[in-house]
Specification:
Layout lengths: L7 H7 L3 H7 L12 H8 L3 H9 L6 H33 L10 H28 L3 H28 L11 H32 L9
Helix pairs in contact: 5-6, 5-8, 6-7, 7-8
């Protein structure tokens, strides 16, 4: 998809350095993050093509910079997301267990998912990322293959959340706790998908020899 047609929120998540450009042009990628780049630029009266050129000329982040971005934006965030989502899901299942749309089994699923994702992130932090940071690409290929497989498992776990929540669709008259839970699930889904994209399609592609080889 052309970057002009992507939302500011999506670009801010997956393009390291994009937020500085948006700040400079006073484009709101937080509250206004659902606007496309073209829409936001038109609303502010700025040249969308000029902003696109700035994005295109951003220096490709080094492996170390990309790893730091992943750790800060995704690993740290996931560790904050799961405890609250588990708490909210337990409350919804307890209070609304008789409701036909109640996501029965969601809290148990989230607990398993949190445990598996934590183990996955620790493998990256203790083994794979140090290898990459030290330029040990040859020996990193094996762990990369394992992480790709585990990413597939995380994708299946996200699909299971969709099954349990009817596509994360709130029933009519849902309480505030239920609403907060599903808002948080939507954020988790988007964050984990973006996280996997950055690793599979950018960082790991470099290790596989099909992408850039800048180590910074």
């Amino acid at each position: 998809m052309n970057a002009l047609e992507q939302t500011l929120g999506d670009l801010a998540r997956v393009v390291p350095g994009a937020t500085a450009i948006f700040h400079r042009h006073h484009l709101d990628f937080c509250c206004g993050g659902r606007q496309t780049l073209a829409q936001a630029a038109q609303e502010k009266g700025v040249d969308a093509d000029a902003i696109l050129r700035e994005l295109d000329h951003l220096p490709s982040p080094s492996d170390i910079e990309l790893i730091e971005h992943i750790l800060t934006r995704y690993h740290d965030v996931h560790r904050q997301q799961f405890p609250e989502l588990i708490r909210l899901s337990q409350r919804v299942e307890l209070v609304h267990g008789g409701h036909p749309a109640c996501p029965a089994g969601l809290s148990d699923h989230l607990e398993v998912m949190a445990t598996e994702l934590e183990a996955h992130m620790q493998k990256e932090e203790r083994v794979l990322f140090p290898m990459i940071s030290r330029g040990m690409r040859d020996v990193a290929s094996g762990p990369v293959a394992m992480m790709r497989q585990e990413h597939d498992d995380h994708g299946a776990a996200l699909a299971r959340i969709g099954d349990l929540t009817q596509g994360i669709t709130l029933p009519s008259g849902a309480c505030n706790t239920w609403r907060a839970l599903y808002t948080g699930l939507e954020a988790l889904q988007q964050d984990l998908m973006d996280h996997i994209h950055l690793e599979n399609n950018i960082l790991f592609e470099r290790i596989d020899g099909r992408g850039e080889t800048d180590n910074g």
